[in-house]
Amino acid sequence: MGGPSNVAPEVEPPPASYAPPELPMGFDNPIPTYPGSSGYNPFENPSGYPSDYVSQDPYLTAAQYHHLYPSSYPPVLPTGYPVPGYQYPPYQQPPPQQQQQQQTQEILERLDRVEHKARKNKEKHNSFMKGLANLIKGKKM
Description:
The chain has helices at 58-68, 97-140. It is elongated. The chain is mostly helical and 141 residues long.
């Protein structure tokens, strides 16, 4: 009667083992490893792209692909915002040769008129300056 009231059962640890522990359930298939470098072929195309990829235009290839296999998504609706990037002005056809000659002739005529007016203004200015110079010379004497 002098011992403990609840006797705890003795727990014996399992014997020590140097074997690897068992895999948990569901781990029966090991992870595949990569093949060694001995399987590498430097002449093989490792990129996965076609071998003539460099000689093709990738934008043309993409356009042809999207033409043959259109997207299943609906087209994007316009938002009302301007399209990002530089907006090029619309291309205009050059005027015919005869119209271009008429424009050139009209430009030359306008240039002649401007030169004539400039010459007249210069003559008026020069005569005014001469008169002013004569007036100043006359008062000094």
